[in-house]
């Protein structure tokens, strides 16, 4: 006789009238969405069930009675709104997966493998074959010692257990395959041991005060430690530097953290160190032992006043964030940081001067440095690194000195003089790459953008105009093989604070035969809008930029861009400010300028700058 082993019911439209069911004892797979009764039939023997998948608004306190023996059950999924007690799984020796998502009335549970059962506070012992355990977003206060000493659990999720106060003190035998996260366990303040095979530890938003020496030493394969928003953390153990595989250490927003321990030995793999928004007052002299460090984040360290020159001896350092610190100056040795590509100094209100910066510095953000007076020219470094820059893979340069009202005339001159060199260097490098790479495979989009407080178009611009438009009569053979493009410049004025605005640039080219063609290019900083930001009354900003592909636009009706532009005799350029927010009236473009760039002028410009 045929025995039914598989039953799948996706819906049951007449479920309200069903009072009883006869299920065959041969069933091995039972999947029933909107199961119509309060429990499984009393005559049904579930000993052959391997998979039970059920959702219901009818199931009450219990799904089956204590006499049921589900010895073959491997997977159970229940989404039963009114279920208040999990069925007894003590005899389910083959259980592999327990999913109780959506059982919103559960207040006590026997075995659990699911998150967001918000009312669950207590957990008993776990099945010996359990491998995946998810307790995230529950109200558990203690983790059973049987979980901590479980050797088969390879995935344990206890994130956002806001009432969890501590981890078990017995020996940890968990063999977690990747990360161990305590993120959001805001009541957790201590632990004694950690899973040894973990590669990533996350303690974000916990109340731990320290990492114990013994617990850290045991996790020898750690590659990343994340401790963000641990507001009770005040220190790190000295043996943290014994973790030789460590690549990233993040202490961002640990608002009471004050001191890094002395770095007693070389760390050959640590590339990222984040100390932003901490109480760190200085970087230890031993930071030189972080020989692989690429990114150091000290932004919003409000007690940091001095940066010593040994910091820039880190030969691998590429990005340094010192925003919103109390530093007054940077050491001249910063010029020696050959690989430094990004330097962030935004809102350093005490910063008074900047020295010459490294030749390959791609991004310098110094917005809101309201005490900044002097900025040294980096022309020597730019020129010395000229040939090396040709093979540099950076796609854009961004140098920002907006809302720096105390910049003296010499500082503004140095910034805009360097801007000319940076633009010529990028333009010639781009031209070199075009010549060396087939046009079909060359698809870069290099750009340079520089801004600083001021109200004059730079002196090196040959064409200037009042207002937001400029018309230029182009010389004969202006679009030669030596042509590198246009460098536009504008002065923008505003009387009120505004963010999230952009600059549009529209070129209208007119040919000798009376045709007209338009090309539109907005000013972007990398992948972001330029985000004009004005704070002071009657503030003015000067913008200078360059794009490499303005003249590569394909124009309808033209055989090629080159054929079109050789006929062009006049160009009218119009600048607009585009609104992305509602912070008052738009800024106004008060002055504008255009400079035609040619490769033959590069040597003369370099000689003039020296």
From TrEMBL:
Keyword Repeat (UniProt): yes
InterPro entries: C-JID, Leu-rich_rpt, Leu-rich_rpt_typical-subtyp, LRR_dom_sf
C-JID domain segment(s): 452-602
Pfam families given in the database record: C-JID, LRR_8
Keywords: Leucine-rich repeat, Repeat
Keyword Repeat (UniProt): yes
UniProt xrefs under PANTHER family: LEUCINE-RICH REPEAT-CONTAINING PROTEIN 57, OS09G0267800 PROTEIN
UniProt-recorded name of the protein: C-JID domain-containing protein
């Amino acid at each position: 006789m045929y025995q039914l082993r598989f039953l799948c019911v996706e819906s049951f439209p007449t479920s309200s009238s069903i009072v009883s069911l006869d299920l065959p004892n041969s069933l091995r797979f039972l999947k029933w969405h909107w199961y119509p009764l309060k429990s499984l039939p009393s005559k049904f023997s579930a000993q052959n069930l391997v998979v039970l998948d059920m959702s219901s608004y009818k199931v009450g306190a219990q799904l089956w009675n204590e006499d049921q023996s589900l010895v073959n059950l491997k997977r159970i999924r229940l989404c039963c709104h009114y279920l208040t007690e999990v069925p007894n799984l003590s005899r389910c020796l083959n259980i592999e997966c327990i999913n109780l998502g959506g059982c919103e009335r559960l207040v006590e549970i026997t075995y659990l493998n699911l998150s967001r059962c918000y009312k669950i506070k207590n957990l008993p012992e776990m099945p010996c074959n359990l491998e995946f355990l998810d307790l995230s977003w529950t109200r558990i206060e203690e983790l059973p010692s049987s979980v901590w000493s479980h050797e088969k659990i390879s995935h344990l999720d206890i994130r956002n257990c806001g009432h969890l106060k501590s981890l078990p003190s017995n020996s940890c035998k968990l063999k977690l395959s990747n990360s161990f996260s305590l993120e959001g366990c805001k009541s957790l303040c201590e632990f004694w041991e950690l899973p040894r095979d973990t590669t990533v530890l996350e303690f974000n938003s916990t109340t731990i005060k320290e990492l114990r020496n013994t617990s850290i030493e045991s996790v020898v394969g750690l590659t990343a430690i994340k401790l963000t928003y641990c507001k009770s953390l005040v220190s790190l153990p000295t043996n943290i530097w014994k973790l030789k595989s460590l690549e990233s250490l993040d202490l961002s927003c640990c608002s009471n953290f004050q001191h890094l321990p002395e770095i007693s030995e070389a760390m050959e793999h640590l590339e990222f160190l984040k100390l932003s928004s901490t109480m760190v007052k200085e970087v230890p002299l031993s930071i030189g032992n972080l020989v692989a460090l690429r990114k150091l984040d000290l932004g919003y360290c409000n007690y940091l006043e001095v940066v010593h020159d040994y910091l820039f001896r880190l030969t691998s350092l590429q990005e340094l964030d010192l925003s919103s610190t109390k530093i007054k100056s940077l050491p001249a040795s910063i010029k020696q940081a050959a690989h430094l590509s990004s330097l962030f100094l935004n809102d350093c209100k005490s910063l008074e001067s900047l020295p010459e910066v490294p030749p390959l510095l791609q991004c310098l953000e110094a917005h809101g440095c309201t005490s900044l007076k002097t900025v040294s020219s980096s022309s020597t470094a730019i020129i010395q690194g000229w040939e090396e820059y040709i093979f540099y893979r950076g796609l854009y340069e961004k140098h920002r000195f907006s809302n720096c009202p105390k910049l003296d005339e010499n500082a503004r001159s140095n910034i805009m003089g360097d801007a000319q060199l940076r633009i010529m260097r990028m333009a010639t490098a781009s031209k070199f790459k075009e010549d060396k790479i087939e046009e079909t495979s060359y698809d870069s989009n290099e750009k340079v953008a520089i801004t600083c407080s001021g109200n004059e178009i730079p002196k090196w611009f040959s064409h200037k105009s009042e207002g937001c438009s400029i018309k230029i009569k182009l010389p004969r053979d202006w679009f030669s093989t030596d042509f590198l493009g246009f460098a536009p410049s504008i002065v923008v004025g505003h009387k009120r604070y505004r963010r999230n605005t952009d600059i549009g640039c529209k070129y209208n080219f007119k040919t000798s035969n009376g045709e007209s063609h338009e090309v539109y290019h907005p000013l972007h900083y990398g992948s972001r809008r330029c985000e004009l930001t004005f704070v002071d009354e009657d503030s003015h900003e000067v913008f200078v930029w360059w794009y490499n592909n303005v003249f590569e636009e394909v124009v309808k009706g033209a055989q090629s861009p080159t054929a079109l532009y050789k006929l062009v005799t006049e160009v009218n350029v119009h600048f607009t400010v585009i609104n992305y927010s509602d912070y008052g009236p738009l800024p106004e473009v008060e002055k504008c300028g255009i400079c035609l760039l040619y490769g033959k002028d590069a040597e003369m410009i370099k000689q003039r700058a020296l």
